[in-house]
Amino acid sequence: MFIPTVLYSTLLLSLYLMLYSRLQTIGERAFYGTNLGSITLPNSLTDIGRAAFENLPNLVVELASGSRLQRIGAYAFSRSRNAFRGELTLPNSVEYIGDSAFAGGVLISSVFIGSNVRYMGGM
């Protein structure tokens, strides 16, 4: 399953959205600037596209246990201040973190990054 680029960018979404267990990719700018408030990313998700969750001031993100996330695109969570409630723990499966993936005032007090990261852009 795939959420296409910009599909939800112009829609007002509910404050809570649980994604399907077969979802593998969230496309570029899929939720950019929406009113999405809370989301649990399923363990099937492997790729978060460029700016997929950018500019979501009320967003709170949770990764399902056993996450297989591999790639976080540039600006993926940029300007989403409260997305990680101060702590960011990325699973060992993450290999790529794009430029400015968590930039723009994202409040993170502690970061735990797995040992398999091969590329990490500027934050």
Plain-language structure description:
With 123 residues, this protein is an all-beta fold. It has strands at residues 2-3, 16-18, 25-26, 38-41, 47-48, 60-63, 71-72, 86-89, 96-97, 108-112, 119-120. 29% of the residues are buried. It starts with a strand and ends with a strand. The protein has a single domain, classed as Leucine-rich repeat, LRR (right-handed beta-alpha superhelix) (Alpha-Beta Horseshoe), CATH 3.80.10.10.
Give the distance, in angstroms, between the N- and C-terminal Cα atoms: 29 Å
Largest sheet descriptor:
6 strands, parallel
State the CATH class. Alpha Beta
Looking at CATH, the homologous superfamily is Ribonuclease Inhibitor
The overall number of domains is 1
The count of strands amounts to 11
H/E series: EEEEEEEEEEE
Biggest sheet: strands side by side, in what order?
1-3-5-7-9-11
Given as residue ranges, the uncertain stretches (5+ residues, pLDDT < 50) are 7-17
Q: What proportion strand? A: 25-35%
The CATH topology annotation reads as Leucine-rich repeat, LRR (right-handed beta-alpha superhelix)
